[in-house]
């Protein structure tokens, strides 16, 4: 007989992972668009494709999804801009990334590895886990 409590916990965990995967791309793209605008004054589809390591067509499809979700504004052959909602998503994603990155650095992970690992982990950590990361980082850094 299967443990129904264990099965229920696993079901919740897998649902949370599926939810994180659905928002992961939007968070990554909005964060990158914000970074490109800050660094270069604009975010172009070509730049998005290059930085994400995808084809121009793939980046265009994602931008269309982001437009439908109300996260970006764009016109053909023009720059891409974040909406107010898109900016909020980008800021939150950047904040989560920094929390995970800082924690990984505090426990001794090399900077280059921490950057890569934080990129994936930031989407899958709960607010509770992120709060513990912050507390542990402060403790380890003597803050």
Order of helices and strands: HHHEEHHH
In spatial order, strands of the major sheet run: 1-2
Output the number of helix runs. 6
Mean of residue pLDDT values: 89
What low-confidence regions span 5 or more consecutive residues with pLDDT below 50? none
Can you give the helix content as a percent range? Answer: over 70%
The top level CATH class name: Mainly Alpha
User: How far is the first residue's CA from the last residue's CA?
Assistant: 50 Å
Largest sheet: 2 strands, antiparallel
Number of strands: 2
> What name does CATH use for the topology?
Arc Repressor Mutant, subunit A
Sheet/helix structural class: mainly alpha
Radius of gyration, Cα only, in angstroms?
A: 18 Å
The CATH architecture term is Orthogonal Bundle
Total domain modules: 1
Entry keywords:
single chain; 143 residues; mainly alpha; Arc Repressor Mutant, subunit A; two-stranded antiparallel ribbon; 6 helices; 4% strand
Describe the protein in words:
It is a single chain. The chain has 143 residues and is mainly alpha-helical. It has a single domain (9-141), classed as Orthogonal Bundle (Arc Repressor Mutant, subunit A). Helices cover 75% and strands 4% of the residues. The protein has a two-stranded antiparallel ribbon with strand order 1-2.
Task: Write a short abstract of this structure.
By secondary structure, the chain is mainly alpha-helical.
């Amino acid at each position: 007989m299967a443990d129904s409590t264990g099965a229920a916990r696993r079901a919740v965990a897998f649902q949370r992972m599926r939810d994180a995967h659905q928002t992961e791309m939007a968070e990554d793209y909005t964060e990158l668009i914000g970074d490109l605008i800050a660094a270069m004054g604009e975010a172009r589809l070509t730049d998005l494709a290059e930085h994400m390591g995808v084809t121009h067509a793939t980046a265009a499809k994602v931008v269309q999804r982001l437009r439908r979700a109300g996260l970006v504004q764009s016109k053909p052959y023009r720059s891409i801009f974040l909406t107010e909602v898109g900016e909020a998503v980008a800021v939150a994603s950047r904040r989560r990334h920094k929390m995970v990155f800082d924690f990984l650095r505090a426990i001794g992970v090399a900077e280059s590895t921490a950057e890569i690992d934080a990129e994936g982990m930031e989407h899958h950590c709960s607010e509770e886990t992120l709060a513990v990361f912050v507390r542990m980082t402060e403790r380890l850094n003597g803050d």
